[in-house]
Protein backbone atom coordinates (compact mmCIF):
# COMPACT_ATOMS: atom_id res chain seq x y z
CA UNK A 1 0.00 0.00 0.00
CA UNK A 2 1.34 3.27 -1.06
CA UNK A 3 0.71 6.54 0.72
CA UNK A 4 0.07 9.67 -1.13
CA UNK A 5 2.01 12.70 -0.05
CA UNK A 6 0.03 15.14 2.05
CA UNK A 7 -0.12 18.52 0.40
CA UNK A 8 1.45 21.24 2.50
CA UNK A 9 -0.56 24.18 3.68
CA UNK A 10 -0.19 27.34 1.79
CA UNK A 11 1.72 29.90 3.79
CA UNK A 12 0.72 33.49 3.94
CA UNK A 13 3.58 35.82 3.53
CA UNK A 14 4.18 37.94 6.60
CA UNK A 15 6.55 40.75 7.16
CA UNK A 16 9.39 39.94 9.49
CA UNK A 17 9.25 41.62 12.87
CA UNK A 18 12.08 44.09 13.19
CA UNK A 19 13.42 45.49 16.46
CA UNK A 20 12.14 48.92 15.47
CA UNK A 21 8.59 47.56 15.01
CA UNK A 22 8.69 45.87 18.41
CA UNK A 23 9.87 49.05 20.12
CA UNK A 24 7.43 51.48 18.55
CA UNK A 25 4.50 50.74 20.95
CA UNK A 26 6.84 51.11 23.92
CA UNK A 27 8.24 54.37 22.63
CA UNK A 28 4.74 55.70 21.99
CA UNK A 29 3.60 54.77 25.51
CA UNK A 30 6.67 56.36 27.10
CA UNK A 31 6.22 59.52 25.04
CA UNK A 32 2.55 59.76 26.03
CA UNK A 33 3.44 59.39 29.71
CA UNK A 34 6.13 62.08 29.51
CA UNK A 35 3.77 64.49 27.78
CA UNK A 36 1.00 63.82 30.31
CA UNK A 37 3.29 64.35 33.28
CA UNK A 38 4.80 67.44 31.70
CA UNK A 39 1.38 68.97 31.08
CA UNK A 40 0.30 68.22 34.65
CA UNK A 41 3.43 69.84 36.04
CA UNK A 42 2.97 72.97 33.94
CA UNK A 43 -0.63 73.64 34.94
CA UNK A 44 -1.28 75.63 38.09
CA UNK A 45 -4.65 76.58 39.40
CA UNK A 46 -3.09 79.03 41.84
CA UNK A 47 -4.09 77.16 45.02
CA UNK A 48 -1.97 74.12 45.62
CA UNK A 49 -2.27 74.35 49.37
CA UNK A 50 1.30 75.52 49.82
CA UNK A 51 2.27 78.88 51.21
CA UNK A 52 3.72 81.40 48.82
CA UNK A 53 7.48 81.38 48.94
CA UNK A 54 9.63 84.40 48.35
CA UNK A 55 13.15 84.20 47.06
CA UNK A 56 16.22 86.01 48.27
CA UNK A 57 19.20 86.86 46.15
CA UNK A 58 22.34 85.45 47.71
CA UNK A 59 25.86 84.73 46.66
CA UNK A 60 27.64 81.44 47.14
CA UNK A 61 29.50 81.61 50.40
CA UNK A 62 26.97 83.92 52.09
CA UNK A 63 25.73 82.48 55.39
CA UNK A 64 22.20 81.12 55.26
CA UNK A 65 19.57 82.28 57.72
CA UNK A 66 16.45 80.26 58.40
CA UNK A 67 13.62 81.85 60.27
CA UNK A 68 10.78 79.92 61.82
CA UNK A 69 8.13 80.68 64.33
CA UNK A 70 5.74 78.65 66.35
CA UNK A 71 2.98 79.47 68.71
CA UNK A 72 2.18 77.74 71.92
CA UNK A 73 -1.39 76.54 72.48
CA UNK A 74 -3.70 78.70 74.55
CA UNK A 75 -5.23 77.32 77.71
CA UNK A 76 -8.86 77.85 78.75
CA UNK A 77 -8.05 81.19 80.41
CA UNK A 78 -6.68 82.60 77.15
CA UNK A 79 -3.06 82.67 78.20
CA UNK A 80 -0.37 80.98 76.24
CA UNK A 81 0.97 77.84 77.84
CA UNK A 82 4.38 76.44 77.13
CA UNK A 83 4.22 73.20 75.16
CA UNK A 84 4.96 70.08 77.12
CA UNK A 85 8.23 68.45 76.21
CA UNK A 86 9.78 65.25 77.33
CA UNK A 87 13.55 65.35 77.46
CA UNK A 88 15.21 62.65 75.43
CA UNK A 89 17.61 60.50 77.34
CA UNK A 90 20.25 58.62 75.48
CA UNK A 91 22.30 56.17 77.46
CA UNK A 92 25.92 57.03 77.09
CA UNK A 93 28.74 54.59 77.42
CA UNK A 94 32.21 55.97 77.88
CA UNK A 95 34.46 55.18 74.98
CA UNK A 96 37.25 52.79 75.87
CA UNK A 97 40.49 54.54 76.73
CA UNK A 98 42.75 51.63 75.83
CA UNK A 99 46.34 51.08 76.92
CA UNK A 100 49.67 52.38 75.60
CA UNK A 101 50.71 48.96 74.19
CA UNK A 102 48.71 46.21 72.42
CA UNK A 103 49.96 43.55 74.87
CA UNK A 104 48.75 45.65 77.80
CA UNK A 105 45.25 46.02 76.30
CA UNK A 106 45.02 42.27 75.66
CA UNK A 107 46.31 41.46 79.17
CA UNK A 108 43.79 43.85 80.79
CA UNK A 109 40.94 42.30 78.80
CA UNK A 110 42.11 38.78 79.73
CA UNK A 111 42.31 39.70 83.45
CA UNK A 112 38.82 41.24 83.23
CA UNK A 113 37.50 38.05 81.61
CA UNK A 114 39.09 35.85 84.29
CA UNK A 115 37.59 38.07 87.03
CA UNK A 116 34.19 38.24 85.30
CA UNK A 117 34.50 42.04 85.23
CA UNK A 118 33.02 43.52 82.03
CA UNK A 119 33.41 47.05 83.44
CA UNK A 120 37.19 46.60 83.54
CA UNK A 121 37.17 45.10 80.04
CA UNK A 122 35.22 48.11 78.75
CA UNK A 123 38.15 50.38 79.67
CA UNK A 124 40.26 48.74 76.95
CA UNK A 125 37.65 47.22 74.61
CA UNK A 126 34.75 48.27 72.42
CA UNK A 127 31.26 47.08 73.49
CA UNK A 128 31.09 44.26 70.90
CA UNK A 129 34.42 42.91 72.17
CA UNK A 130 33.19 43.08 75.77
CA UNK A 131 30.06 41.14 74.75
CA UNK A 132 32.31 38.46 73.24
CA UNK A 133 33.59 37.59 76.74
CA UNK A 134 30.67 35.16 77.02
CA UNK A 135 31.92 33.11 74.06
CA UNK A 136 35.29 32.21 75.61
CA UNK A 137 35.51 28.75 77.14
CA UNK A 138 36.68 28.61 80.75
CA UNK A 139 40.27 27.63 81.33
CA UNK A 140 43.76 29.02 81.56
CA UNK A 141 45.33 30.77 78.60
CA UNK A 142 48.64 32.52 78.08
CA UNK A 143 50.05 34.91 75.50
CA UNK A 144 51.36 32.93 72.54
CA UNK A 145 54.69 34.43 71.49
CA UNK A 146 53.84 38.16 71.51
CA UNK A 147 51.47 40.64 69.90
CA UNK A 148 52.41 41.76 66.42
CA UNK A 149 54.16 45.07 65.83
CA UNK A 150 51.11 47.24 65.35
CA UNK A 151 52.03 48.60 61.96
CA UNK A 152 49.44 50.84 60.33
CA UNK A 153 47.55 51.27 63.61
CA UNK A 154 46.46 47.60 63.76
CA UNK A 155 47.64 44.79 66.01
CA UNK A 156 46.58 41.33 67.12
CA UNK A 157 47.46 38.98 69.96
CA UNK A 158 46.80 35.29 70.53
CA UNK A 159 46.21 33.69 73.90
CA UNK A 160 46.38 29.88 73.80
CA UNK A 161 45.30 27.24 76.25
CA UNK A 162 43.91 23.70 76.39
CA UNK A 163 40.33 24.90 75.64
CA UNK A 164 41.39 26.77 72.47
CA UNK A 165 42.67 30.12 71.24
CA UNK A 166 41.53 33.66 71.99
CA UNK A 167 42.37 36.14 69.24
CA UNK A 168 42.38 39.87 70.02
CA UNK A 169 42.24 42.44 67.21
CA UNK A 170 43.20 45.96 68.25
CA UNK A 171 43.31 49.41 66.74
CA UNK A 172 45.31 52.42 67.80
CA UNK A 173 42.99 55.22 68.90
CA UNK A 174 44.28 58.56 70.16
CA UNK A 175 47.68 57.03 70.95
CA UNK A 176 46.28 54.04 72.88
CA UNK A 177 45.39 50.51 71.82
CA UNK A 178 41.73 49.45 72.01
CA UNK A 179 40.49 45.87 71.61
CA UNK A 180 38.00 45.97 68.72
CA UNK A 181 37.26 42.28 68.18
CA UNK A 182 37.63 39.11 70.24
CA UNK A 183 37.30 35.73 68.57
CA UNK A 184 37.43 32.37 70.37
CA UNK A 185 38.39 29.24 68.47
CA UNK A 186 37.88 25.97 70.40
CA UNK A 187 40.70 23.42 70.39
Count of extended strands: 4
Largest sheet entry: 4 strands, antiparallel
Helical proportion, percent range: 25-40%
Structural class, please?
alpha+beta
User: Total helix count?
Assistant: 4
Q: Which strand order do you get reading across the main beta sheet?
A: 1-2-3-4
- Unreliable residue runs: none
- Based on CA inertia axes, which overall geometry fits? elongated
Structure description:
This protein has 187 residues and is α+β, with helices and mostly antiparallel strands. The chain has a domain of 85 residues: Roll (Nuclear Transport Factor 2, Chain: A). The protein has a four-stranded antiparallel beta sheet. The relative contact order is 0.11. The mean pLDDT is 76.
Task: Give a short summary of the structure.
The chain is α+β, with helices and mostly antiparallel strands and 187 residues long. Helices cover 25% and strands 17% of the residues.
